[in-house]
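Q: Could you fold this chain for me?
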Amino acid sequence: MSMRNVALDLPLMLIDVRVVARGVPILDGISLKLEAGPPTVLIGPNGAGKTTLLRAAMGLIRPSSGLITWGGRESSPPTRRAIMFQRPAMLRRSAAGNVRYALAAAKVPRAERERRIAELLADVGLSGLARRPARRLSGGEQQRLALARTLARDPAILLLDEPTASLDPAATKAIEDIVRKVTARGVKVVMSTHDLGQAKRVGGDVVLMHRGRVIENAPAAEFFGAPRTQEARKFIAGELLV
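A: Sure. Below is the predicted structure, expressed as structure tokens.
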């Protein structure tokens, strides 16, 4: 990961962004600045708008109003950012074949692909399973393979939509370790989760969303130690936000 790539795509800014679907606001005036550094973790109840925010940040959804910029530009090809959805589909080929497909899609030169496959599988702890059919991997292994495919783009910004949902603690730890590893290389990770423990462990900054709005945005230690809003205090206490 080159710092040139990071500089070109960051900060990622959402400025008064609204996304309306069938007359219903999914994002309702979101303003957020995502800068280089530790992961930003999005939390909030179901329907808060976390997935829509990630899709908009990727450039997959055009705002109904407001502005999104990448490194100060309103239009930026998504070559330096990547997104992994909650339930990524596995291709009917080996683990290595899945990564090979992703590298080809990212236009990595053919001569470099085998080396990159080995590197990416090693990064996610799947070196010994390169020839295993992807659909025969466990749920946690499939998530790690999906991360390897996503990292094949060599992104400066990595967007993760609940990457550990339904995983057991060991598989969850493996994903969190990968997040820390890529963060140490300079990749900006923006991740949604329902797991408050995970937000504490991984988050540099925590963004609480509710009804399509940002309720609170603070460093993780500050958010959990001294939340400023009633909604944040309720959410941390496990009370339902309505």
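A (continued): Residues 1-7 have pLDDT under 50 and may be disordered.
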